[in-house]
Design goal:
The complex is a heterodimer of chains A (522) and B (719).
Chain A (H helix, E strand, L loop, with lengths): L2 H5 L13 E8 L4 H14 L3 E5 L10 E9 L20 E4 L2 H9 L9 E5 L6 H4 L9 H11 L2 E5 L1 H7 L4 H12 L6 H10 L4 H16 L25 H13 L2 H17 L2 H20 L8 H14 L4 H8 L2 H11 L6 E8 L3 H7 L2 H8 L2 H11 L3 E4 L3 H11 L2 H4 L3 H23 L1 H9 L8 H21 L5 H12 L6 H14 L1
Parallel strand pairs in A: 1-4, 4-5, 5-6
Antiparallel strand pairs in A: 1-3, 2-3, 7-8
Chain B lengths: L6 H6 L7 E5 H11 L4 E4 L6 H9 L1 H7 L2 E2 L5 H7 L2 H4 L4 E7 L1 H16 L5 E7 L13 H7 L2 E3 L5 H18 L3 E6 H4 L2 E5 L10 H6 L13 H23 L4 E3 L6 E6 L3 H10 L13 E4 L1 E3 L3 H8 L4 E5 L6 H13 L4 E3 L12 H15 L14 H4 L2 H9 L14 H14 L4 E3 L17 E2 L21 E5 H18 L5 E6 L27 H7 L4 E5 L5 H13 L6 E6 L3 H17 L4 E8 L9 H4 L6 E4 L10 E4 L8 H8 L6 E8 L3 H24 L8
Classes of the chains: A alpha/beta (522), B alpha/beta (719).
């Protein structure tokens, strides 16, 4: 820049060089972004201001996110201000985000800047499709948004506005309007906000309540509303079984045989295993776990917080409680299950509830329950199997709380006596032993690798095809681990393999990592 | 019945002199048409002008009072052809559509119309779907105006200016015997603003008058030798008449100081953002009081040579602000200046980007560079302009880029199209991938996750036609998808008729959801609603059979995923020759909910027995693989983290936006996924029989449950 340019004094063009107050609203379909926009426009117009709003409707409706944009300022000597149709990065006074990742998006778009912007955001999450389709945990990290808000916003109002709105029978737009009023960024008093809401006909009362609650939450720090209060579960076990002394013994063993860091997980694991089968199965769990802990100790686990034992406590329990028809039928017929559904539906007095299950059993599932020998015998007779499968393999709509169907499920759920002699149990046990063997062998030479192998159990999940796919990922991962087992960074590779396997359904990313390993390890 | 009702807004159309209209831009446009005395209106819905069509459809009474005829045109070509009513008769008419796609469809009729010329004022309102939020290819309507020689109005985004230009536009059309296009951008259409109303005007001459007194003039018809004369007429008579009118009525505006070394020439639509950019540079106040001379072209075609020359004469340089490419205006202005030997340098796309939105931020950069090159003194002491870059470069914000997930548009909760694509995914798993031609409409979202189906999209209703090359014997067949909207728009002939005639062996899926849903749920020929003003309930199946298709399957409940899958499989494998047409019908859920929800609430209030359905997931049965989500993508099917230390991955969960369509359960069953889905039926106001049955069953069930719970080890003691 030339010096003379810098020294030039340029007077303001007119009397008012200040800019209008600008407000950007980031919302998704169904969140009432349009209503909120109309309210703010009306509010400004009621005070004689000129207000302009724009949006691209339709996009948000279909689950996408959109931006509503408002500019408002008073006219000058009858002259209307010229207002912009889109927010300019770095020049937005208020950003309102009706969801937490949308708050993050507003920051990425440069709409939130420390010199100017008040950020009003709800910290509840509405997951994007990309977060939901991962076979593992694809949920985005809230912490990153929190961190960015800290550096980007001039001031911030963050709380769960969705929960607050639901608690007051309204939608989030009313809560955000309340939060906006409380910031005082617009020079209008609380009553003028309320007048705007009250002018609408439908749902005005709930909106007013929500507005007030949000206003108070910001101004006087009223406590947060707990997310969707659940009605108390009606405990339908008036005569709980007396405490079994055999259980007490298991608890004693757990305390004696396992180190402190692993006890919480082992406790949860023990509970899950006993719930799945019986107390004897719980004892078996502790037996195996103690064995694994011994291996952990001799591998120097004490210095590593017994990570191996901890992971074993967790994943062994999951491996032992595989998903079979007995378990599904048992879970579906429990009283706690019905109580949970009634709570979720907020079932009122005098309403009648029925549920229909969408089940599709195949011969494989039936085989799982049959005694191991009989199952093997059947497997060698494909024609008979095919004939049986055609009888069994079809979609069934199961009316859970009709007597015939309930009885059928109840009987299946009671078959746990057959379970430990079943074909499925034999297969699961063999698979489990092999996995534990691989982990135990590794932990001796490469402690972390042993831990990683245990964690691979996470890949096995689902039913039928999904289960086979999970199992195949697990097997491919373990096979690939053997290729690098001798390397120093074997544990790193094991972790990378597991994470890749959890990224997509068919396992394309896993194949990618395996190929990389093959390129240097074979 | 459209997605949104304008019953209240329609009342604003009755406002008269002395009233202030406050509302959306598109409604202001509608009001302006009535103030201009139009005799007929028509058009085809599509963003951003859908609301104009919806308002007109809801405004029957207002239109009837004024004697205005309104048509929902079959497509844009039909709408454009409708304007022929103004060729022989002094009737004012207007049509509207989404551009450039609609203008593409209409351009045959438009070219004929523009060649013969008009007697009554005709206006084509084009919703210029350009820039952020647009759903179409990024092109400009400007080229159509130039090639057919129709005048193109591009008003400042201001209700007063837009309304005034519509009224003046009709006069311009009449005095130059030329159709006029009014270009409004997406945000201007949906902009809230206000203007002072005038009274509505009844058309002086009506459609009825015209029908009763037919006229013809071979000289107006595009046939040699008249067609050659039309061209000469355009050059020698109509263009000069238009230029004279535009100049005399000052349709283009001069702003700011009379003189200056530099100036800015812009499309009217760019004005607001230019002012904001100038404000950032300290060169204007918020009320448009600018220190730089501006020439605002509310008419971007034709360019008024004398006005451009006058503006540029005393200037060293001018900046042309023209959104989109190619830079037609810049070229035209260069020609004017060269011809007149005016030395002002022309800047434009050299300092501004060739393509993309001209936001205030983009213009700030362009204007600053222009001034730095030509008159840096104006930039003075350079007040700080808004700048988000330092924040965006902060590591905490940089990190966000990896975190914030994309939120692509998808099918709505309960959408009847979802099970169709879930079935296609299941067929894909069995028979392998196929070439799938997609089409315009909600179903186009199938190309996005989680479905990832569809290879091309060639234009509304052209999905089937775009498979026509794949008409050979091979191991696989082509699949084409088209909606009911596209089917009636042109797909019946261009797609199905074409396939029948050419003996195409492919599979043609017609997604019928009873409305043109993507544009807001307007009725069409096959809509099943009763519409007093139109004839609905015309069968798609009969239409395709009528045109010669033999293999036709109707599925009247798309949620039957198993049947959908089997039908698709049959279509892909049958030995029958010729097109395999599957008509998959279920009502658009958005419209259905809008229709049914109030009825249901009322029925419950009135004490009637109503069964409300909702789906759920048993969280302890779900294993957190999310295969169900990968085959569905329903917005109400989400995930939640359980408070269980033994579980790593979130489980599937259905939130209370579920409408009980049943897709997730059907998919879980058809794909043999897992038994965690259930449908919960809640009977409101149950009958005594309902209660009796339930009481008996629950008594026995409760006894059985307690029996088993007593035998279970008391795990509560473990917690």
């Amino acid at each position: 820049m030339r010096d003379e340019t810098v020294r030039l004094a340029l007077p303001a063009a007119g009397e008012a060089t200040e800019r209008p107050i600008s407000i950007a609203i980031l919302a998704m379909g169904g969140q009432g972004g349009g209503v909120l926009t109309d309210w703010i426009v009306q509010l400004a117009e009621n005070h004689g201001w000129v207000a302009q709003s724009t949006s691209v409707p339709g996009v948000a409706q279909r689950t996408g996110a959109t931006i509503y944009y408002i500019e408002a300022m008073p006219p000058l000597d009858g002259r209307k201000p010229i207002l912009s149709l889109m927010p300019t990065p770095g020049d937005v006074d208020v950003v309102m985000a009706a969801e937490f990742m949308e708050a993050g998006r507003s920051i990425l778009r440069g709409l939130v800047t420390p010199d100017r912007t008040t950020l009003i955001a709800s910290n509840h999450r509405s997951f994007a499709i990309g977060e939901k389709i991962a076979p593992g945990d694809g949920i985005a990290d809230n912490g990153a948004v929190r961190g960015a808000i800290g550096v980007a916003a001039k001031s911030e109002i963050i709380f769960d506005m969705n929960a607050l709105a639901i608690a007051h029978g309204s939608v989030i737009s009313a809560a955000m309007f309340g939060a906006l009023a409380a910031t005082g960024v617009l020079p209008f008093d609380r009553d003028s906000y309320l007048a705007v809401i009250r002018a609408g006909e439908k749902g005005a009362k709930a909106s007013v309540d929500t507005f007030q609650a949000a206003f108070d939450r910001v101004r006087i720090g009223a406590p947060d509303v707990a997310a969707a209060p659940r009605p108390e579960k009606n405990k339908q076990s008036p005569s709980p079984a007396p405490f079994d002394p055999r259980l007490a013994k298991l608890l004693e063993r757990l305390k004696h045989e396992l180190p402190q860091p692993a006890r919480d997980l082992a406790h949860a694991g023990l509970k899950k295993v006993v719930d799945f089968q019986d107390i004897a199965y719980g004892a078996e769990y502790l037996d195996i776990l103690s064995g694994l802990h011994a291996a952990d100790r001799s591998a120097g686990g004490a210095d590593r917080g017994f990570a191996f034992t901890r992971m074993a406590a967790k994943y062994l329990a999951n491996a032992m409680t595989y998903d079979d028809v007995i378990r599904v039928a048992d879970l579906k017929t429990r009283s706690a299950r019905r109580a949970r559904i009634e709570g979720e539906l907020e079932l009122a007095q005098g309403q009648v509830l029925q549920t229909t299950e969408f089940m599709h059993p195949r011969m494989e599932e039936v085989m799982g329950v049959l005694p191991a020998g009989f199952g093997r015998w059947l497997e060698t007779r494909p024609r008979l199997m095919g004939w049986l499968d055609r009888r069994v393999n079809k979609g069934r709509r199961v009316r859970t709380y009709s007597l015939p169907w309930f009885l059928a499920l109840y009987v299946v759920g009671g078959l746990r006596g057959l379970r430990r002699r079943s074909r499925r149990h034999a297969i699961e046990t063999a698979h489990r032993d092999e996995w534990l063997k691989a982990a135990t062998e590794s932990v001796r030479t490469n402690y972390q690798l042993g831990v990683e192998i245990l964690q691979c159990r996470r890949l096995v999940k689902g039913y039928s095809d999904t289960h086979s796919r999970g199992l195949s990922k697990f097997d491919r991962t373990l096979a690939a681990i053997t290729l690098v087992a001798q390397r120093e960074d074997a544990a790193d590779w094991a972790r990378r393999l597991r994470e890749a396997a959890l990224k997509d359904g068919p396992g394309k990313q896993l194949d990618g990592v395996i190929q990389t390993i093959r390129s240097f390890a074979s | 019945m459209a997605e949104r009702s304008f019953a209240r807004e329609v009342e604003d159309l009755r406002l008269g002199a002395g009233d202030i209209f406050r509302g959306e831009g598109i409604l202001a446009i509608t009001k302006a048409l009535l103030q201009s005395g139009v005799a007929y209106v028509g058009g085809y819905q599509g963003s951003p002008i859908s609301h104009l069509m919806d308002v007109l459809a809801d405004a029957k009474d207002v239109l009837d009072d004024l004697g205005v005829v309104f048509q929902s045109s079959a497509n844009e070509a039909a709408a454009a052809a409708m304007l022929s009513a103004s060729v022989m008769y002094p009737l004012r008419g207007a049509v509207a559509w989404k551009s450039t796609v609609g203008t593409n469809v209409a351009s045959d009729a438009l070219a004929n119309l523009a060649s013969g010329g008009v007697t009554g004022g005709t206006m084509i309102i084009v919703g210029e779907d350009y820039g952020e939020g647009s759903s179409i290819m990024q092109e400009r309507t400007h080229a159509f105006a130039m090639k057919s020689q129709m005048w193109l109005l591009d008003p400042r985004p201001d209700h007063d200016c837009i309304v005034n230009l519509i009224e003046k536009g009709f006069e311009l059309s009449e005095c130059s015997n030329t159709p006029v296009m009014l270009e409004v951008r997406v945000r201007a259409c949906h902009m809230h603003g206000s203007f002072a109303c005038k009274d509505n005007v009844r058309p002086a001459y009506t459609i009825k008058d015209a029908l009763n007194n037919p006229k013809r003039d071979v000289g107006r018809i595009v046939l040699p030798p008249a067609a050659y004369e039309h061209e000469q007429e355009k050059i020698k008579t109509r263009m000069p008449a238009a230029i004279g009118f535009i100049r005399d009525n000052k349709l283009n505006e001069w702003m700011g100081p009379k003189r200056g070394k530099v100036g800015i020439i812009m499309q009217g639509g760019m004005y607001n953002n230019v002012i904001r950019a100038l404000q950032y540079l300290g060169l204007s106040d918020a009320y448009g009081n600018t220190q730089i001379p501006l020439y605002v072209m509310n008419v971007t075609y034709p360019v008024i040579d004398t006005e451009v020359a006058e503006f540029c004469l005393d200037k060293d340089a001018v900046l042309i602000v023209e959104e989109g490419q190619p830079e037609y205006l810049e070229q035209a202005i260069n020609t004017v200046l060269r011809r007149k030997d005016i030395q002002a340098r022309v800047h434009g796309k050299d300092v501004l980007p060739m393509g993309g939105d001209y936001t205030a931020q983009v213009l700030l950069g362009g204007v600053r560079e222009f001034l730095e090159k030509t008159e840096p003194r104006l930039l003075g002491n350079r007040p700080p302009a808004p700048d988000a870059v330092p924040v965006l470069n902060h590591p905490a914000v940089e990190k966000l880029k990896q975190v914030v997930p994309a939120r692509p548009p998808g099918l709505c909760t309960g959408c009847p199209e979802r099970p169709i694509f879930a079935a296609m995914k299941l067929v894909e798993e069995e028979l392998g991938e196929h070439h799938v031609s997609a089409d315009i409409g909600c179903h186009l979202f199938s190309i996005l996750p989680p479905f990832n189906i569809g290879a091309t999209t060639m234009g509304f209703g052209l999905g089937p036609a775009s498979t026509s090359a794949f008409n050979v014997k091979a191991d696989k067949r082509s699949i084409a998808v088209m909606g009911d909207g596209g089917f009636w728009h042109n797909g019946l002939t261009s797609g199905i008729g074409n396939a029948v005639f050419n003996k195409h062996d492919g599979v043609f899926v017609i997604v019928d959801n009873f409305y043109t849903s993507a544009t807001g749920g307007q009725d069409i020929l096959s809509s099943r609603a009763v519409n007093k003003r139109r004839k609905t309930n015309n069968s798609i199946v009969q239409a395709v059979k009528g045109i010669g298709a033999q293999w036709v399957r109707q599925i009247d409940r798309t949620y039957d995923v198993g049947r959908m899958r089997d039908t698709l499989k049959e279509a892909l494998t049958t030995k029958d020759e010729g097109p395999k047409v599957i008509v998959a019908s279920s009502e658009c859920m958005l419209n259905k909910q809008r229709r049914v929800k109030p009825q249901t609430s009322k029925a419950i209030k009135d004490g009637l027995r109503i069964v409300k359905e909702r789906f759920g997931v048993d969280e302890d049965v779900c294993t957190g693989d999310h295969a169900c989500i990968r085959l569905s993508g329903c917005p109400s099917l989400s995930v939640k983290q359980l408070d269980d230390p033994l579980r790593d991955d979130p489980v599937a969960a259905i939130d209370n936006s579920c409408v009980g369509c049943g897709n997730c359960g059907e998919v879980a069953e058809a794909a043999v996924l897992c038994p965690s889905f259930y449908r919960a039926d809640v009977i409101h106001n149950p009958t005594r029989w309902d209660r009796f049955k339930s009481n008996i069953a629950m008594t026995v069930i409760g006894w059985l449950q307690r029996r088993r719970e007593r035998r279970r080890p008391a795990l509560e003691a473990l917690t």
